[in-house]
């Protein structure tokens, strides 16, 4: 597997360099040539049947699958809401989001599936502790489960307006980052004792992300420094069936439902391969929006990055600008290292403000269509969000079923 710059992705693995059958996402080996993702549905499984050690690996596979199932939809819908991509179809929810209106009735699926991803991982950890008992701390499955709990909470923290746990009352959305940090910290400890270096790298990367979100600049920098340039932890998709497809590819290559027009990608005019697009010389499905088809995800089976080495270097760069009076030379060197690896020209900056502008654009480039842009706008209090919704509110279903939540 390779990213848009044709650099090998070093993806975290779980013992034996395996690719799990039936998984929507798997922690794949370096340069996995292929993985048979065919699966036969055995029907409903009784809860008691999961109290078996042999059921623990499929349980963790389910965590990966639930994360990927919603992750690509977050990239699509929040991409539209943030101006990362432009809706070129004629769907009500997307049209509202294009205008900056994220309505409770339009986010039932997003809210429910993002919380499902978190709940399955967190409850799965409890199940693993019960079933594996004395072997829990030595099981890489326990480490991986903590990764999925951490990244699911990171996804919620970046996108939700409030935190709501299992029918409880609304709290600060930042609680998700605190929760994520605790899972990543435990994953670092477990992976270290197990000798699972790749999963430890993923945990350091995740903790760096959520520490940055909490403005713990030193902690974020220190974690990011543990992660190599060529590291990549990704959600893996497949061509097996619609649930396993990369939805971003589907909506732009199989359907003309979003375009790169009026985005940073268009402004860069194909001068940066990380934001590549093709002018289709036609309008999108709405018959009005000119179709500039994204070329980042060229297949229904293309992976979507969750955390990468490039981001870690940019976290270090931001920390350099945030700590003390700001170290512009160090920040720019880190940024330009990322740019040189991508094969694009370096940039210069004389002041912290100028360097921060360069940094923000670089982050927008590497995060393109990865479901991260709305959070970037939100944490920087970007003027783009003036008069627009900046996060996902509790869904209509949550309001109707949870007496502790109201509009």
Low-pLDDT runs: 1-42
Rg, Cα atoms, Å? 21 Å
State the helix count.
14
Which percent range fits the helix content?
40-55%
- Percent of residues in beta strands: 5-15%
Structural class: mainly alpha
Secondary structure: number of strands? 8
Strand order of the largest sheet: 1-5
N-to-C terminal Cα separation, in Å?
44 Å
The helix/strand order is HEHHHEEHHHEHEHEEEHHHHH
Give the biggest beta sheet.
Answer: 2 strands, antiparallel
Mean pLDDT: 90
Shape, per Cα inertia axes: globular
Which SSEs are present, and which pair or pack?
Layout: H1 56-82, E1 86-87, H2 92-98, H3 108-132, H4 140-159, E2 162-163, E3 171-172, H5 175-194, H6 197-213, H7 217-224, E4 232-235, H8 247-254, E5 258-259, H9 264-268, E6 277-283, E7 290-294, E8 304-308, H10 309-322, H11 328-342, H12 352-366, H13 373-379, H14 396-401
Helix pairs in contact: 1-2, 1-3, 1-4, 3-4, 4-5, 4-6, 5-6, 6-7, 6-10, 7-10, 10-11, 10-12, 11-12
Description:
- The chain has 407 residues and is mostly helical.
- 48% of the residues lie in helices and 7% in strands.
- The protein is built from 14 helices and eight strands.
- The longest helix has 27 residues, at 56-82.
- It is globular and about 60 Å long.
């Amino acid at each position: 597997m390779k990213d848009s710059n044709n650099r090998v992705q070093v993806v975290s693995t779980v013992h034996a360099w395996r690719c799990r059958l039936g998984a929507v996402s798997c922690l794949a080996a370096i340069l996995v040539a292929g993985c048979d993702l065919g699966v036969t549905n055995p029907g409903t499984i009784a809860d008691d049947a999961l109290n078996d050690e042999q059921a623990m690996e499929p349980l963790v596979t389910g965590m990966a699958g639930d994360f990927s199932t919603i992750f690509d939809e977050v990239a699509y819908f929040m991409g539209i809401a943030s101006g990362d991509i432009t809706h070129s179809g004629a769907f009500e929810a997307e049209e509202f989001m294009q205008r900056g209106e994220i309505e409770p009735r339009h986010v039932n699926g997003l809210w429910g599936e993002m919380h499902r991803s978190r709940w399955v991982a967190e409850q799965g950890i409890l199940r693993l502790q019960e079933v594996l008992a004395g072997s829990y701390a030595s099981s890489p499955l326990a480490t991986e489960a903590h990764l999925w709990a951490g990244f699911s909470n990171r996804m919620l923290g970046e996108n939700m307006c409030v935190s709501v746990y299992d029918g409880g009352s609304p709290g600060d959305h930042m609680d998700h980052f605190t929760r994520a940090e605790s899972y990543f910290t435990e994953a670092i400890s477990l992976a270290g004792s197990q000798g699972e270096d790749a999963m430890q790298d993923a945990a350091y990367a995740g903790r760096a992300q959520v520490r940055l979100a909490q403005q713990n600049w030193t902690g974020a920098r220190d974690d990011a420094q543990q992660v190599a340039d060529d590291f990549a932890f990704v959600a893996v998709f497949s061509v097996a069936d619609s649930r396993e497809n990369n939805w971003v590819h589907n909506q732009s290559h199989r359907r003309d439902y979003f375009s790169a027009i009026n985005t940073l990608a268009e402004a860069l005019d194909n001068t940066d391969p990380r934001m590549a697009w093709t002018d289709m010389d036609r309008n999108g499905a709405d018959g009005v929006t000119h179709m500039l088809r994204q070329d980042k995800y060229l297949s229904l089976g293309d992976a979507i990055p969750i955390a990468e080495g490039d981001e870690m270097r940019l976290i270090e760069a931001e920390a350099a600008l945030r700590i003390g009076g700001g170290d512009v030379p160090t920040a720019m060197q880190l940024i330009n290292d990322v740019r040189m690896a991508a094969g694009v020209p370096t940039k210069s900056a004389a002041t912290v403000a100028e360097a921060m502008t360069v940094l923000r654009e670089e982050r927008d480039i590497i995060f393109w269509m990865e479901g991260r842009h709305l959070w970037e706008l939100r944490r920087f209090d970007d003027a783009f969000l003036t008069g627009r919704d900046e996060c996902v509110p509790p869904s209509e279903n949550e309001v109707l079923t949870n007496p502790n939540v109201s509009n």
